[in-house]
Fold these 2 entries.
Entry 1:
Amino acid sequence: MNQQEAFENRLTSLRDTEENAVQKQHQKGKLTARERLNILFDEGTFFEIGAFVEPHQSAAAKKAASGDGVIAGRGLIQGRSVFAFAQDFTVLGGSLGFAHGSKIAQVQEMAFKLGAPIIGLIDSGGARIQEGIKSLSAYATIFRNNVRSSGIIPQISVILGPAAGGAVYSPALTDFVFMTDKTSFMFVTGPDVIKEVLNEDIDMESLGGGNVHASKSGVAHFVYDDEEHAILAVRKLLAYLPSNNFEPLPLSTHIQFHEARQEYLDKIIPDDANRPYDVKEVIQILLDKDTFFEVHEKFAQNIMVGFGRLNGKTIGVVANQPKVLAGTLDINASLKGARFVRFCDAYNIPLLILEDVPGFLPGVDQEHSGIIKHGAKLLYAFCEATVPKITVILRKSYGGAYIVMSSKNTGGDFNFAWASAEIAVMGPAGAIKIVNRAELAKSKNPAELEKELIDKYKNEIANPFRAEELGLIDEVIKPSDTRNILITAFEILSNKQYSPLSRKHGNIPL
Ligand code: HXC
């Protein structure tokens, strides 16, 4: 066999191996790293960096192809510069060796220097076992880069296969985690280790599948049925965000809204204060048409958060959902809300808060699990946020929950209320039982007296007009006027300035 024939043979064998690997990936319902990047970026814009980087010397090196199992580079998304890396599971299970990790670190550092978002497409068995501490050190560099970039450039992780061991911590440090249902998994220790240590049986899906992380742990902000939808959703999310914390927010000139549905808001609050309604409807009617992009849709559904556009401008929405747990704030809702508020604040995204909250969720489990410190996170996040903050109280606004949801004295710029608002230390039924206990005990007809006292409490104390007189509500507004008022109010606040305090950092109750 001459040299030319030997070369051709080797090339054919490489192609066969590659084709087999691609087939294996497709059989699992997964795309290859390159196919994923093709969906992510505007056509033909991906510029690869480090394609020929060789793996570090190790037993694994013989198996790892050049590029060391990760494709890294820069491309355009809706014409804007974005960095990305995509792990290739067909090369040693996408495990992270030193060269692989160094390539990721390089694009992270370029994204940081150039003020562009970075997206990681993760499909990895974690630290490459054969490379030992070299692999761990590469992870450490990646984590440090994640932390350094936090609040400066948006960082997004898309889990499209396993993310095991060290592979989970970079996503956990990024702003948003996307997963796919059934084909992606995240866990620190897998089913085998759990069986060995705890003798518990669990499969990968039940332990760390997309739906588990989207609904139970809250690790995933988004879950989609397939990779294509997950990656396209990343493109959609980026359209709301600036490229870095100094860049102005992207504007949309295509403005449409539900003009005819504004009046429906005058009727949306049920007469019976204990009956629920869907706050998502309120959000959708107030925002520009079809622009609400919900974050953490399946997690802590008693609070709703997401991005939207109001008159073409990006805003963040935080809304209590009366349909779930009556809109009470529990631990998960506090964590969800706090994280979202801090993201918006970091990237100068104004906040709209729609409030209907009877209070914090009572219960031994909540108390013992730390509702005090977790609820304090939401309070801290709103107090700390310096972006324009506008609250509209739709109905209930009681006690600590009134204070938390960006009330005036926590730094809320405008607090508006609908006439249906009930603002007080606590709800009428609870309040009169404390204040009028003796009277009720003596009464011959306590049920009738209770009704009278509740009406009196509502008329004299728990209403928005009293709060308006005290200057704690800027205006009681008609629901159907809300959109127009919000547009003007955000416009007034658009030049809001803030001076950072001279301290290293605060101490959020983590
Ligand atoms: C080296 C690895 C690897 C790893 C997988 N492979 N994980 N090689 N280091 N961490 C290799 C396999 O040997 C195999 O090679 C190929 O990738 C495909 O793996 P399979 O097991 O055949 O695939 P699958 O059945 O789909 O299972 C995928 C998997 C499983 C769930 C990810 O491979 C797995 O459990 N891997 C180990 C995960 C783990 O415990 N990682 C933690 C590492 S410690 P061949 O040659 O056979 O194709 C860690 C600590 C860092 O990350 C801490 C920092 C905070």
Entry 2:
Amino acid sequence: MYRSHTNGELRATHINKEVTLSGWVQKIRDKGFMIWVDLRDRYGITQLIFDEERTPKEMMTLASQLGREFVIQATGTVIERESKNPNMPTGDIEILVSKLTILNKSLTPPFTIEDATDGGEDLRMKYRYLDIRRKPVRDNLVFRHKVTMAVRNYLSNLDFVEVETPYLIKSTPEGARDFVVPSRMNEGQFYALPQSPQTFKQLLMVGGMDKYFQIVKCFRDEDLRADRQPEFTQIDCEMAYIEQEDILNTFEGLTRHLLKEINGVEVDKFPRITYDEAMKTYGNDKPDIRFGMKFGELNEVAQHKDFNVFNSAELVVGIAVPGGNQYSRKEIDQLIDWIKRPQVGALGMVYVRCNDDGTYKSSVDKFYDQEDLAKWAHATGASNGDLICVLSGEKNKVRGQLSALRMELASRLGLRKSDEFAPLWVIDFPLLEWDEETNRYHAMHHPFTSPKSGQLDLLESNPGAVKANAYDLVLNGNEIGGGSIRIHDKETQSLMFDYLGFSEEEAKAQFGFLMDAFQYGAPPHGGIAFGLDRLVAILGGQETIRDFIAFPKNNAGRDVMIDAPAPIDKEQLKELHLQLNLKP
Ligand code: ASP
């Protein structure tokens, strides 16, 4: 028996008990005649004491040879601690050791294995197994487990069935590149790793499973942006014989359950806004509504004066920054520099100070009088003491820039509180999205999404205006879930592929199986997928998803611990019928 108790378990009630503990040596204090050791395992820390007068001599000697992260087993008596530590659950007691066994030695760890470590991110990733010994990392993994258990229980109670779908598949177009796997047995052929189980879950509906979910890995070979992982986890769901309303209600229920179960927070019915409203009001299809600062469009009240910058702009739009009139000239200049950075890309910013006496002072006083500025204040909802920030230019660009400014200012003002939760549905997404690179329309969600009824005719005349039965669940400025009601008949699906530029042969080669299935009584169906990593991070009140993944990849998509990706040897390449043409 390695242990009778864990290191988080013993209390004053155990005093005089004989116990055996195992774990890692976190800290040693060696006074010669007395040695204290903090012993750690997943459950906590217990203090061991070796005392010249009471501990056998050879055990004393052994204890003096311990080093950090040695794995040991200690048997002894629980005694009352002389100086108690109220900050530790086991702080009332210590173990007077009578027998010590070194189970394994350890090299000196490259960083301290404590809550606040001296190890930088790279080092911690290289030795992730040591990092996981630290409580904050371990707690995050346990937290993730709690969330996935709550998801499984909730959905299972609603009769959802978790079904596994394959990882070695054919490409599913979800907008990213596929990771591909060469097939040894089929020369020149490749599997693709799923970007999501989209087509399989639809086939499960054709197969009559009715309510499916899966906590599943998905793979997308995208250019890596900060805090994206090439492999990530979805809570993937699909239902048959449902309408959009059923999906929204079911998964609002799941989200509400998680907020209650995990965070103890009760939320009212989630607001719903259309994609168009979201873009108009927040410049963003995943608005953070924990705070206001809604956009006020100013074209009507700011154009047709002599200020040409505004007159020539497609959109003039502003936000009121609460209390912003306190900003000094220097601070405002810094803000202007901030939005001019290439990442945001604004050309400049007009601002209006809303003084406490109800007067205004703007950076464009030459063109606008008090009456004009009062209209701006009205449109942006500004009060005395606020600062109105105004941007202008091409509609989509300006919305993006003002949205970035809105989020930045909210962060600076402390309005993005991690313990506040403001979920909402964004609905009625466009079916198609214009792609500058390829100069054509792409499916905004994916090609299996159904257009709103009666809008199919618009596809020819005004494709950008067609709305889809597609929805996103947004939490605190993050898209945590997205889905759609699907096309379930072959004709519409073929039409869609045709519209998206697939020739009949291509569509048949890639998705013939799905269109075949649709001919055998496919029920109406739809679904949603949640990004589990992000969801867990938000519920955990933290920013980075990496902190909630046991073995994450770094920003360059590398696993620096196992050193992947890595070359494979010639033999293996040959077996896979691959040849590398690397430049010397
Ligand atoms: N497969 C979609 C995605 O990964 C989700 C869905 O439509 O259910 O975004």
